[in-house]
Amino acid sequence: MTDTARIPDKPALEGLESVWGGTWEREGTYRFDRSAASREQIYSIDTPPPTASGSLHVGHVFSFTHTDLMARYQRMRGKHVFYPMGWDDNGLPTERRVQNYYGVRCDPSLPYDAGFTPPFEGAEGKSVKAADQIPISRRNFIELCERLTVEDEQHFEATFRMLGLSVDWTQSYRTIADEALFTSQLAFIRNVERGEAYQALAPTLWDVTFRTAVAQAELEDREQAGHYHRVGFHRPDGGIVEIETSRPELIPACVALVAHPDDERYQPLFGTTVTTPVFGVEVPVVAHHLAQKDKGTGIAMICTFGDVTDVVWWRELDLPNRAIVGFDGRIIAEAPEAITTEAGRAAYAELAGKTAFSAKQAVVSQLRDSGDLLADPKSVTHPVKFYEKGDRPLEIVSTRQWYIRNGARDDQLRERLIARGREIDWHPDFMRVRYENWVEGLSGDWLISRQRFFGVPIPVWYPLDDAGDPRFDEPIVATRDLLPVDPSSAPAPGFDEAQRGEPGGFIGEHDIMDTWATSSLTPQLAAGWERDPELWNLVFPYSMRPQAQDIIRTWLFSTVLRAELELGEKPWSDTAISGFIVDPDRKKMSKSKGNVVTPTGLLEQHGSDAVRYWAASSRLGTDAAFDPQNPTQVKIGRRLAIKVLNAAKFILAFDGRADAPVTVPVDRSMLAELTSVVARATRAFDGYDHARALEVSETFFWTFCDDYLELVKERAYGQPSPEQASAVAALKTALDVILRLFAPVLAFATEEAWRWSHDTSVHLASWPTGDDLAARGEAGGELLELASLALTGIRRAKTDAKASQKTPVLSATIVAPTASIALLRSVASDLRAVGRIAELSFVEGEAFEVRDVALAAPSE
């Protein structure tokens, strides 16, 4: 029963987040109770762990609300929802933030300083240059990373709680915590044991700013201005072969010229040699199908290494390695052995130590002097590969790295991964194509090692020979009982710390795992794989993976890969892919573009339900424009939430019971229409179409408030009678259903209104079904629609006459088809009451019309 003392005089949205957020926490509303759940009753969510670095942005609010809508819906459907929250602590963004925030940089050669105090606290943006940052030991640096990520996580959690995420906060995890280290390292060890993880010295995409390797999934092409240089290579007969290159500084690293095997212009040259200009190195002319006849002169130089195609040519044609670019992006001091002439070595010496840009200028000058620059450089704009978080073009250097096989060179694994993707239900379905295109386009195995500091250590050591040189082909891999372990500070099995770095001793692996190598295990991290078998068996495979579309190639693919390699099954039954948030100019919001909106002010200004409504209005996979200066959808959502509160207060004030008989036809018609709305909203949610569920519920709600509630309120206010009881029962029944329909979206307003008449949370109430209403409604909602049309016609007549809606009507006529007349007569008394109509008549006609509305004079 309604306790009127609970209903405020003026319902408001302000403050509901703190009131009900605290109540949910105290009551354990969203707590996952494994003891009460069977596998069939569980809906488990593999939640994306946001990077705990800096601040959340409005895109997080957008996509995490989509997840929460489904969590709340499934909970109301009777499921035990496993909804954890993870924090992605490690990775380059965290390290960069720590460097800027504290004014430090990591130098692994320095000893640990137990009393170290950073020079700044919160100096973001004031100490970006490495020269201005104080070098500290790796251990000191990691301690600062851990300190700052914990602070960021607390801010993130506070924002998510304000948003109303129905997360079980007792099920949270951190990707750098001991449990995550154990899981990540154990999975890696299993990969090694099965031959899926391996180490190799190979050409590697390298970011010279951050001094780390970069995986294929972390690349992005950016259009860059450059120049094509037409250069002559010398034939033995005195002729020249003209090539065009945008990287003349790599001529000292040239190992061959290549043309397409069908190119008749160069077929006579295949199997012969030419000599490089300036540096005088004899290189072969070879054929390969990747050469493009219509690019430049149709023949290109292969250098070690200018781009990824060079790597393919180098590998498939078994060419020598003459790499000249160092880890710092500068030309190395030692010239390739193939440069043997005095003039060639002198020319190379002019390049040593220069950046690639300066070296390019120097080589162009040398080519001009030698007469081998055959034309003025031609300006071009072309795509150049960058690390997605980097500011300088990537180089390709030879490094020793760890890889995990991903199907790039294994057709059977590739087909298994594609098959797994087809076993998953994608929402929307077209996103599956992006996954398949990525798998089919893989060109190399997954490079998982990173030359960074804050992350999961690779659990490997290397023995040293008698000369103190590492035997990399004999790695010592940690055993399970040692995990978690950091080889840079713990001795290898069978050795003691005194043997570190000594001949006959060992060295530890200093590289850490790529952040995706940990995030690819989020199902395992959250569900206690190999740590909590009971929980693992309850929730895996998960029900849903929600995520953004831009990380299908990274997070989604890598999770499918790890599940396939370790478990031989798909990690979830469904995946829900959110679109991007774009600014008013339809540009994707990102920190690098400076157009990101942080959500805290938005939530405080408009209320969380308003922001949740905005997010819920967008379908999965669809980009949503957001204008912080005029957030129209947010304002609409706020209006809706306020209307829900006011309508609930109004309805609950009527004297009567919700379970009284509903006998009046228009009341039964309204409930019949609501039955249809429930069915449509349920189908939409079952199909992961939350926007459609909101749309049908909201459309009905406004009709309910503007038409039905207005139509029957006079009767509901009247003296006790079967007709009055019918109106009140219909109103309260409908309100009960409407609050539950809106509960996933308007989490706070519906809870507030629900608690005025219930002792438990609306979010633990059952989702409405047609069975709840079928016995009380007519076969359809035609009468409600006709009554709404009649009411609208009467209102319009008063508006056209510029009269108040309270103006009495002396007489009015409704024209309607014969079949509709009988229905309308049943609602005549309500129409007369709400329209203040003295005489209402009905006339049969072909089309519906309200006419001959005679208004009383103002004085009457």
Rounded to an integer, what's the Rg over CA atoms?
A: 35 Å
- Give the CA-CA distance, first to last residue: 42 Å
Number of strands: 30
Structural class: alpha/beta
Put simply, the count of helices is: 25
Strand percent estimate: 15-25%
Name the poorly predicted regions: none
In order across it, which strands form the biggest sheet?
8-7-16-18
Overall pLDDT: 91
Overall 3D shape:
elongated
Amount of helix: 25-40%
Largest sheet: 4 strands, antiparallel
Give a description of the structure.
- With 860 residues, the chain is an alpha/beta fold.
- Helix content is 38%, strand content 18%.
- It is built from 25 helices and 30 strands.
- The longest helix has 28 residues, at 690-717.
- The two termini are 42 Å apart.
- Residues 23-104, 133-626 form the Aminoacyl-tRNA synthetase class Ia domain.
- Its EC number is 6.1.1.9.
- A motif ('KMSKS' region) lies at residues 588-592.
List the SSEs and their pairings.
Blueprint: H1 16-27, E1 42-44, H2 58-76, E2 80-82, E3 85-87, H3 92-102, E4 104-106, E5 134-136, H4 138-163, E6 172-174, H5 178-193, E7 197-207, E8 212-213, E9 219-234, E10 240-245, E11 254-259, E12 273-275, E13 282-287, E14 299-303, H6 308-316, H7 342-349, H8 356-370, E15 378-387, E16 395-404, H9 411-423, E17 425-427, H10 431-440, E18 446-447, E19 449-450, E20 460-463, E21 476-477, E22 506-508, E23 512-513, H11 515-519, H12 522-527, H13 533-539, E24 542-548, H14 552-567, E25 572-578, E26 581-582, H15 599-606, H16 608-616, E27 624-625, H17 632-652, H18 665-686, H19 690-717, H20 722-742, H21 747-754, H22 771-774, H23 782-800, E28 809-816, H24 818-825, H25 828-835, E29 837-844, E30 849-855
Parallel strand pairs: 1-2, 3-6, 4-5, 11-13, 17-25, 24-25, 26-27, 28-29
Antiparallel strand pairs: 7-8, 7-16, 9-10, 9-15, 11-14, 12-13, 16-18, 19-23, 20-21, 20-22, 28-30
Helix pairs in contact: 2-16, 3-4, 9-10, 10-14, 15-16, 16-17, 17-20, 17-21, 18-19, 18-20, 18-23, 19-20, 19-23, 19-25, 20-21
